[in-house]
Design goal:
This protein is of the alpha+beta class and 276 residues long. The protein has 2 domains: 116 residues, Cytochrome c-like domain (Cytochrome Bc1 Complex, Chain D, domain 2, Orthogonal Bundle), CATH 1.10.760.10; 108 residues, Lipocalin (Beta Barrel), CATH 2.40.128. 23% of the residues lie in helices and 20% in strands. Strands 6-5-4-3-2-1-8-7 form an 8-stranded antiparallel beta sheet, with no helix packed on it. A hairpin with a 4-residue loop joins strand 2 and strand 3. Helix 5 crosses helix 6. The longest helix has 11 residues. It binds heme C (HEC). Heme C binds next to helix 4 and helix 5.
Length: 276
């Protein structure tokens, strides 16, 4: 009689996966292909998520330590109510189920990926994420350390990033509720390292760091302390997307900076001095 053997019942609860789910064992996950996972993550996830410890949130939360935390619990990210109330800890199985059914698994979530991640890619993505979010200490394959030719110009190293950011305009909205500031402005990043804006007296410049972060500074701003600096991973721009407000960052305490990209070179960029 089961009821008389609580230990066995407990063991069963522990081992039996949630109804209808295939169990992804750690052994099977460890066998998955890191490079396949890396590529799939870069293509499908990195536009919205960083993985490394202390990296910034983009449109989605930074995922370092995600397999140790309760869903929707990163303090500095604003989740949907659905994720905030989900109440479970992320596990490979949970993530697998979500990526298989991005809207149905957690109805009302705001992750907004357009389609399910193919079954063939999911174990690889999860393998890659387990390593890169610090959940396991599995060895990375040697190819993981192959450095792309760093002497190549950014246009060759990251064509999708380059074409997206250098030839379209970025719309921003600076929002500081406490100071009563709501300041929309546009920036056009030029290939020569400068940044033009549609505001009088406001200019900027940008630089790609050794760790492949795109960093830019704006000065002459009529809000905040008058200038700002911000960096984000180049990989975050891997998926070219256009929208008015795609991400939100915090360049200064209390400030929300909403950003989005719209196609094309704007009229206000000085046609006489295109610097391209
Ligand atoms: C378009 C932007 C976008 C893309 C692309 C995206 N995510 Fe997300 N992700 C989000 C947002 C926004 C949230 C928060 C969802 C919510 O609050 O409902 C999120 C949440 C998550 C969480 C939960 C984090 C937590 O703290 O609970 C995980 C895990 C995750 N995403 C993994 C992925 C993976 C893996 C991919 C690629 C297959 C991916 N995401 C692609 C935007 C994105």
């Amino acid at each position: 009689m089961r009821r008389t053997i609580p230990g066995v019942i407990l063991l069963c609860v522990w081992l039996v996966p949630a109804a209808g789910q295939e169990r992804l064992t750690m052994a099977a996950l460890q066998e998955a292909d890191y490079m396949q996972g890396k590529q799939a993550f870069q293509g499908r996830c990195s536009a919205c998520h960083t993985l490394a410890d202390s990296s910034s949130n983009i449109a989605g939360p930074n995922l370092w330590g995600v397999f140790d935390r309760v869903a929707g619990s990163k303090a500095d990210f604003r989740y949907s109510e659905t994720l905030e109330k989900a109440g479970f800890e992320w596990s490979p199985d949970r993530l697998d189920a979500w990526l298989d059914d991005p809207t149905g698994y957690l109805p009302g979530n705001i992750m907004g990926i357009p389609e399910a991640v193919p079954a063939a890619d999911r174990p690889a993505i999860i393998h890659f994420m387990l390593i890169e979010t610090g959940a396991v200490d599995w060895e990375r394959p040697p190819e993981a350390f192959a450095v792309a030719d760093r002497s190549a110009p950014p246009a060759e190293r990251w064509p999708s990033f380059w074409n997206h950011l250098m030839f379209n305009r970025v719309l921003y909205r600076w929002e500081d509720a406490a100071a009563g500031e709501n300041f929309p402005f546009e920036v056009y990043f030029k290939t020569d390292g400068s940044a033009a804006t549609n505001q009088k007296g406001m200019t900027g410049f940008w630089h790609i760091t050794e760790r492949d972060f795109f960093c830019y500074a704006l000065t002459g701003m009529p809000v905040g302390v008058g200038s700002m600096v911000e960096c984000f991973p180049v990989a975050a721009m891997a998926i070219p997307r256009f929208a008015r407000e795609l991400w939100t960052s915090n360049p200064q305490a209390e400030v929300k900076l909403h950003g989005g990209i719209q196609p094309g070179r704007p009229d206000w960029v000085d046609a006489e001095n295109p610097a391209m």
